[in-house]
Amino acid sequence: MAKKKAAKKSAPKKKSGAKRKPNAAFMKPMTPSAALGAVIGSNAMPRTEVTKKIWGYIKKNSLQDKKNRRMINADDKLKAVFGGKSQVSMFEMTKLVSKHLK
Fold first, then answer.
1. Which residues, listed in sequence order, are joined to residue 94 by a DSSP beta bridge?
2. How far does Cα 62 stand from its chain's mean position?
3. Which of these, 90, 98, 88, lies nearest to 33 by C-alpha position?
4. Structural Rg of the chain based on CA atoms
5. What is the mean pLDDT of residues 20-42?
6. What is the pLDDT of residues 33-55, one digit of tens each?
7. Burial class (CB in 10 A: 0-12, 13-18, 19+), 80
8. Handedness of CA 94, 100, 101, 102 (dihedral sign)
């Protein structure tokens, strides 16, 4: 009879105090389209900063749905970014916004 192989070695554990290294792709400055620029400004910025600015705009203008907090109600500026949709989920929002970044 064949012997069973030893259990696979587990990956070495990371130090609990070590900071995560940011992904370079997220930190690369991206240029927003004209429609997105109307919401967050036209300067090139990393994706992380784009997301922060969009959420700041949503909170400032109370565009988060009152009953279902995962949904974003678009005003005129955001409708242009969201492809004419009047309401999108926060997960769909990131996909739609990425189309406006170069």
1. none
2. 19
3. 98
4. 20
5. 88
6. 999 999 999 999 999 999 999 99
7. middle
8. positive
Contact present, 25 and 9 (Cβ < 8 Å): no
Q: Which residue has the tokens 């406006």?
A: 100
Let me know if 14 is exposed, middle or buried by CB neighbors in 10 A (0-12, 13-18, 19+).
exposed
Sign of CA pseudo-dihedral 63, 64, 67, 70: positive
Cα–Cα dist 102/97, whole Å: 11
Residues 6+ apart with CB under 8 A from 33: 100, 101, 102
Of the candidate CATH numbers 2.170.150.20, 3.40.50.300, 1.10.245.10, 3.40.630.30, the domain formed by 27-98 belongs to 1.10.245.10
d(CA 32, CA 40): 8
